[in-house]
Q: What sequence folds into this?
């Protein structure tokens, strides 16, 4: 999970905030493909202008084509199973802190992912920077 944001509402500002976090964390080259579902927020002027401003290309899946978003759907399933279903949060701040810890400490650095050869995202990226895979 490279970019994420937390808000009461799912709107274009939330998506733009998550996109900005991702852009701040990675070197972005023109032509970067960013895939989304068909939510209205992704088609918004604000979000589309931000994509264009960094030379990114938006890609939306066809209606009912869940395979395009399989990795992100898997993330949300894991988040719900590992964290949310354990109980409720007393406050929004508690939710924000626990979700931060889940994403930044556990999910990205510890949890292994089958799509990454049973490595954590952190380990996968570290190996990618060292050279070809064995």
A:
């Amino acid at each position: 999970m490279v970019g994420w944001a937390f808000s009461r509402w799912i709107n274009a500002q939330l998506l733009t905030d998550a996109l900005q976090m991702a852009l701040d964390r990675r070197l972005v080259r023109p032509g970067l493909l960013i895939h989304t579902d068909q939510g209205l927020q992704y088609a918004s002027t604000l979000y589309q202008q931000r994509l264009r401003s960094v030379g990114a290309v938006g890609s939306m899946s066809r209606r009912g084509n869940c395979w395009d978003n399989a990795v992100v759907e898997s993330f949300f399933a894991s988040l719900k199973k590992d964290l949310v279903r354990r109980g409720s949060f007393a406050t929004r701040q508690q939710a924000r802190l626990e979700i931060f810890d889940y994403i930044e400490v556990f999910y990205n650095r510890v949890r292994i992912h089958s799509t990454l050869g049973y490595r954590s995202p952190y380990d996968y990226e570290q190996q990618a920077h060292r050279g070809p895979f064995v």
Summary: The radius of gyration is 16 Å. The chain has a mean pLDDT of 86. The first helix runs from residue 12 to 25. Strands lie at 33-36, 57-60.
